[in-house]
Structures are given as structure tokens and as C-alpha cells.
Amino acid sequence: MSKILAANFKTNHTRASTRAYIEALDAHLDASGYKGETYIFPPATALDRFETKADIRIGAQNAYPTVKGSFTGEIGLEQLGEFGIGTILVGHSERRHILGESQAFIAQKYAWFKEQGFTIVYCIGEPLEVREAGDDAVRRYLVDQCEGIDTAYEKLILAYEPVWAIGTGRTATPELIEQTHAVIKRLSDRPLLYGGSVKPQNIADILAVPGCDGALIGTASWDVESMVSMLETAMRDEK
């Protein structure tokens, strides 16, 4: 099975730099014949209909569960539909811990976009204090983050991102990733990505972990050459 690689731009890149990035990425993927699924999550200001030869899927980092309405600062289905967007990130730790989204609201958002037939990349992961409390605490925390979520949804992609490893340079060991992915696999049989300081130097080890179906990449994906390097690693590992 081909690996899934997803790039989360967060609050980075402009409309112009996103277009240049996708054009460069598309040229490489088309030339290499890469067959894996590749997702790009630009900032909302850079969403567009990108004509690509390769299978590059554009997603929204966030949206409000509505077609349109009086929700200042949010975007809804009408805005996403203008660009043919049918993929969304839900439950990212920065939405949970920085922007205060509750599990109840995340589950509401998940259910609504599921009804619209979106591909949903659903993020779960524990903070450092939970990891330090032991395996049982981590398992309970991850189970709680799946409360109200249809984990059998056919267009679901799960992403395990330990909060203590996101943007910190700290990466979970392959053994810890395998152990935690095994717990999550008991909750759902959908594809499962790892995220948390993934970069060209460690992606081969991460993709080799049993039960890891790909990677959700932050900082290291913002440079297109770095992303191409990681895609090349994924392609080599498939041969």
C-alpha cells in the first residue's frame, strides 16, 4: 500500500508562494510517477482550484460546520465549494489547545463534514504530562479524543500527533510510535498517519514503523525541496 503524505502549512505561505510550491511539486510527482496520495493544507487565503497532473489533493485546515452564515472570521461550505475543496483537517492539537475547541465541538464539526462527504484527516495526540503518566493514561486520553467520532467512516484518515513532539524537534521513537499506533488501530481500521517533527532525516524510520500508513508533516513540509525529498523516500520504500 502506498504511503499517504500530507503537508500542513499552518499560518505560512501566501497565495503566490502556494501556487509556486504546488507547481513545483506537481512537476516532480508527474516526472517521478509517484502513485501515493499527497495532501496539501494551505492557509485559507491560498485555497484555489489547482490544475495538476499528479494526484495532489488540496484541503482546508479548518472550517465552520455551516454552508454560510453569521460566523465572523470563519469559512463555510459555500467558500470551500468555490474551490472544489472536499478535504479538511479536524481536531488538530493547535485547534484544541491554543484555540480552545472542545471535544463536543470537534465531534459536531466532524459529523457535519462527514454528512457533506468530506475526506477528514482527524488528529489525536497526548500532551507531555499525559505521556509521562504512563501507557494507560495515554490510551484513555486517545479514547476520549475519539468520543462522538465515527471511526468507521470510509473517508476518514487518522493522524496521531503527540503534542509534545509537534514543532519541538522531539520525535517519538519508532518503538513508541508502533506501540501507540497499535492502540489506535484497535479503535479504527482506517489509514493512520504519524505527525510530530517529521523531517527528511527521520521519515524513513517513521514510515517503516508497522501500522504507520504515512505522515502529516508541519515545518519540514513548508519548503518544497524538503517535501520532495520526503516523497522520494516514501517512493523508494515502496519498491
TrEMBL record:
HAMAP family: TIM_B
Cytoplasm as UniProt keyword: yes
PROSITE patterns in the cross-refs: TIM_1, TIM_2
Similarity comment text for this entry: Belongs to the triosephosphate isomerase family.
Name of the encoding gene: tpiA
The organism of origin for this protein: Hydrogenimonas cancrithermarum
Highest taxon above the source species: Bacteria
Subcellular location: Cytoplasm
Name assigned to this protein: Triosephosphate isomerase
MF annotations from Gene Ontology: isomerase activity
A Pfam family the protein falls into: TIM
This enzyme's EC code(s): 5.3.1.1
Swiss-Prot/TrEMBL keywords: Cytoplasm, Gluconeogenesis, Glycolysis, Isomerase
Described function: Involved in the gluconeogenesis. Catalyzes stereospecifically the conversion of dihydroxyacetone phosphate (DHAP) to D-glyceraldehyde-3-phosphate (G3P).
Reaction(s) the record says it catalyses: D-glyceraldehyde 3-phosphate = dihydroxyacetone phosphate
Main location: cytoplasm
Chain sites annotated for binding substrate: N8, F9, K10, G167, S197
Location of the active site: H92, E161
Quaternary data: Homodimer.
Keyword check for Cytoplasm: yes
Pathway the protein contributes to: Carbohydrate biosynthesis; gluconeogenesis; Carbohydrate degradation; glycolysis; D-glyceraldehyde 3-phosphate from glycerone phosphate: step 1/1
InterPro entries: Aldolase_TIM, TIM_sf, TrioseP_Isoase_bac/euk, Triosephosphate_isomerase, Triosephosphate_isomerase_AS
Signal sequence range: none
